[in-house]
Amino acid sequence: MEADYQPKFSPSRGLTATHNDHEDPYPSLSDYHDYEPNLEFDDTELQHATVTSDLEEKIDAGGLDYLESPVSDGTIEENFEEELVNAPVIATGVDSLSYPFVDEETEEDFSEVAKYGIVEVGGDDTYGRKVIVVSACKLPGNKELDHTLLLRYLMYTLDKFVEEDYSLVYFHYGLTSKNKPPLSWLWQAYRAFDRKYKKNLKALYLVHPTNFIRVIWQIFRAAISAKFGRKVMYVNYLDELRQHLHLDQICIPQPVLEHDERLVQKNNRVVQPQPAPQQNAKFHTPLQTQQFGVSLQFIKDNNNGEVIPPVVRQCVEFLSQPDALETEGLFRRSASVQLVKELQSKYNQGQPVDFRGDVHLAAVLLKTFLRELEEPLMTFDLYDEITQFQSMSKEERPRQVKILILEKLPEDNYLILKYIVQFLSKVMDRSDLNKMTSSNLAVVFGPNLVWAQTGQLSLSAIGPINMFTDFVLTHQDQIFII
Fold first, then answer.
1. Each residue of 123-143: b (16+ CB within 10 Å) or e?
2. Cα–Cα distance, 180 to 41 (Å, whole number)
3. What residue stretches are annotated with the Rho-GAP domain (predicted)?
4. Residue among 195, 182, 179 at smallest CA distance from 135
5. Residue 369: what pLDDT?
6. How many CB atoms are located within 10 Å of the residue 118 CB?
7. Which of 175, 190, 242, 290 is a plausible cystine mate for 348, CB 3.0–4.6 Å?
């Protein structure tokens, strides 16, 4: 099987995978592919797998017979829905799974899976999209893990974010013969993740891929659309992720870091040292007009004592127009990174800003402002109380939330929160058009209002934070003093 994947050396491109020299349908962030040609485990299951009738002809008694190159000319069969309908259903107990926004009384207990840290939330990427991280090295042995429960847990986690654009990072290193899920489970997982999961996934980064990834691609290719294939990128070295992700916000497992270091040394790759923007910012004197990345007090002191930051007021006023309020997917969609950075720079320099009629640009800018505050709007001091919201009784919640917001939240923070929540109530009033209910807005704004002092968002904290935010949005008339 490996004969089809023997790498060759090209002076201009380095090591590349070859099979008729076709272009890889999955783009890579570097030119170096398949530096580790041997599979990390016995691939017998892959050699004898049967997934669709169309692929049976490609699998013989001796292994995979590659009638078509796994690195094709970039086009992939478009009969996606038809292939899924005709594909055999694999009995894993997961046929139709969905986890809407529900309270703790109806949520399933995932503690047996969550304790391994296989799935984590890694802050936002450079495009303002939430990042979900899956680490193969954290998978326990197959005898210790219920894969059906794992699939439900993955869907439960993604359901908190799929209503807005998001990115997925998969650290492949650490997948072995002892912890690799069965091929039938992989196929069932792909079937379970229907369109609602795929449409808002904007990037899937496969970090440290090996031939196993390519073999899986060959088996599943008949059911993968070209549109989805274009979202997938091979990442051979961690430093290639820096232009897309904030690596300091991602919990990269130590084995993955060590593996990457070995690869860099093995291939004599020169990695340019990257500055640490957050650390350097402490020693950098901000402009008096700066609004992003500074404190609310700094903005107030440099804007004639105005409590509502100019960027917040201008974004809210622009988004309060009827056409903007009625835009479907408001606050879910990402915007041009270049334009967001351009407007951030203008705000920081005190220059006039024009949203150019782009609703999503203004929406992303508002979320970015909140996320880049030196301290979250709900403050670090209130983090522990907010993340305990889920454990409060329903009778207790109204009183506790009022105490937290009316008594413990600093006055300026209270006024800004009230201003934003009252605007979001207008968004909720148009939910029949913009599809943004209180729970959807909670998923979007919760992580931008509350986070730990470490800057990272614990997966266990997401549920309580979103529930707290939803409660504030739905009960804002009773919470805020008019």
1. bbbebbbbbbbbbbbbbeeee
2. 9
3. 294-480
4. 179
5. 95
6. 21
7. 290
Chain segment 145-199, per-residue pLDDT in tens: 999 999 988 888 887 777 778 889 999 999 988 998 888 888 888 788 877 787 7
238 vs 68: CA distance, rounded Å: 31
Q: Is residue 63 scored above 70 in pLDDT? A: no
- Mean pLDDT value of segment 341-348: 94
Secondary structure of 420-439 as H, E, C letters = HHHHHHHHHHCHHHHCCCHH
Q: Which of 51, 18, 14 is nearest to 31 (CA)?
A: 14
| Residue 125 DSSP one-character state | B
User: Residue 286 in contact with residue 298, Cβ under 8 Å?
Assistant: yes
Q: How far, in Å, CA of 291 to CA of 293, rounded?
A: 7
On whether the CB atoms of residues 223 and 53 are closer than 8 A, the answer is no
Q: How many CB atoms lie within 10 A of CB 367?
A: 21
